[in-house]
Amino acid sequence: MVKNLPLKKLSHAGLTIEGYSRAAVQTYWRIPELKLGFDLGAQPWDFMGTPNWFISHTHMDHIAALPVYLARRRMMKMEPPTIYLPGLAIGPLNDMLNAFTRLDRGKLPCKFVAVQPGDEIELNREYVVQVGKSEHTVPALSFLVWHRKNKLKEQFQGIDGQTIRDLRQDGIEVSAEQRVPILGYTGDTTVAGLDNMPELYQAKILITEMTFVAANHSKEKIKKNGHMHLSDFIERQDRFENEVVIAAHFSTRYSDSFIRRTVEKALPGLFDGRLHLWL
Ligand SMILES: [Zn+2]
Ligand SMILES: [Zn+2]
């Protein structure tokens, strides 16, 4: 294992969240169990095996490691990965990759898939990713992973297996799809990114941003820069139904201890221990 970048981990509900995110520095997350990652601001060496990436937006601290990631996968003879992202980004990113191919003399194969708010991507039979709209200074997306399974409809529960099979043979729909939101990611956004897709407040795990925490930051300016402030979390504290809320992407102007002190004072108990400051 090569250690080349900072990384923090948290395990919950059968998922491992690995990542790091500081504003203007770099942002990268991955969930090995789901074989997917969010944003490519940098690329820890061990992340290269993850084949599906969802890009929230194309600020440098969220996309700069794309060529590095593609080159490593090609070198290791892995399949070209699939990158889901705002469609507007594909042209400029292809130009960038072509420039790197000329500089590096190596191909950088990948499959870009343009996605927009409202889209649903089937990862496999069990998992679907819903795309939402974040509010930032460039086009920005949020992502919500749903776990789905077929469950017997209520009126058929408790009936023996043979009867169920007979009903199925008669063409009767005995089961219905049931969906549970398991993981949300907002990328960089004003609080509208959360409000636009209220299911994000219900995801078992929510990864989001809290770029600003100091009381003296003007709300208007923060909104104009497309970010969230601690006060957004205070105002909406009753809405977060998540089992885990990861707050990340803190501004580099604050020390870790200042962030901890300020947030703990404003939100004593940190949502009964559900709010994790990613520091
Ligand atoms: Zn950012
Ligand atoms: Zn950004």
Please give a handful of descriptors for the protein shown:
seven-stranded mixed beta sheet; Metallo-beta-lactamase, Chain A; single chain; 9 helices; 25% helix; alpha/beta; 279 residues; binds zinc ion
Any overview of this molecule?
With 279 residues, the chain is α/β, with parallel strands linked by helices. The chain has a single domain (8-146, 184-277), classed as Ribonuclease Z/Hydroxyacylglutathione hydrolase-like (Metallo-beta-lactamase, Chain A), CATH 3.60.15. Helix content is 25%, strand content 30%. The protein is built from 9 helices and 14 strands. The structure holds zinc ion (2 copies). Residues 23, 27, 59, 61-62, 188, 249 line the site of one zinc ion.
Provide a concise account of the structure shown:
The chain has 9 helices and 14 strands. By secondary structure, it is an alpha/beta fold.
**Share in β-strands:** 25-35%
Shape: globular
Strand order of the largest sheet: 1-2-3-4-5-6-7
* Biggest beta-sheet profile: 7 strands, mixed
User: How much is the radius of gyration in Å?
Assistant: 21 Å
User: In CATH's first tier, which class applies?
Assistant: Alpha Beta
Low-confidence stretches: none
Counting DSSP H or I runs of 4 or more residues, the number of helices is 9
Distance between the termini: 22 Å
Report the order of strands and helices: EEEEEHHEHEEEEHEHEHHEHHE
Give the tally of β-strands: 14
- Helical fraction equals 10-25%
Whole-number tally of structural domains:
1
Bound molecules: zinc ion
User: What number is the mean pLDDT?
Assistant: 96
In CATH, the topology is named Metallo-beta-lactamase, Chain A
CATH homology superfamily: Ribonuclease Z/Hydroxyacylglutathione hydrolase-like
Query: In the CATH classification, which architecture applies?
Result: 4-Layer Sandwich
